[in-house]
Amino acid sequence: MPQTLRTAFDRDDLLACARGELFGPGNAQLPLPPMLMMDRITDISGDGGAHGKGHVVAEFDIAPDLWFFECHFPGNPIMPGCLGLDGLWQLTGFNLGWRGWQGRGYALGVGEVKLTGMVRPDRKMLRYFVDFTKAVQSRRLTMGVADGRVEADGEVIYQVKDMKVALSES
What we know:
By secondary structure, this protein is of the alpha+beta class. The chain has helices at 11-18, 67-71, 81-98; strands at 40-45, 55-61, 104-109, 112-115, 125-137, 142-152, 155-168. The protein has a single domain (11-168), classed as Thiol Ester Dehydrase, Chain A (Roll), CATH 3.10.129.10. 18% of the residues lie in helices and 36% in strands.
């Protein structure tokens, strides 16, 4: 089945993507653990979401023994906010590869970031929401622009506007 017809991916699928097996060599890849910031993608589209330009919903199970809690910060363990942002970027790039667009993904930036909560070891699950505002594929440019949010156990803790991820064949 072509990847574009699938709307959900489990951890094994995400690991296959990280190894370059899901979208093919030289195309969008997720990072391997421990930098892989999600356990499953529960929904993905090229025409859904708040703006009708595509979306991704994913989940990340939180366990007290995750690698970042030990070092950030000793005695006051908190998941670094930049890892939540990276998870949103990862999902934005995954959506571009899922669309069948070619090239390796890289983050170009983000317009606005608001961190209003924290991920501590007692949290159970993060849910990521990415809503595309623009998805462009031309001869010169392949790029997605999206807004996103991260919820911890149902509470909105991170919000971003104008994330940009591009694919490049070089």
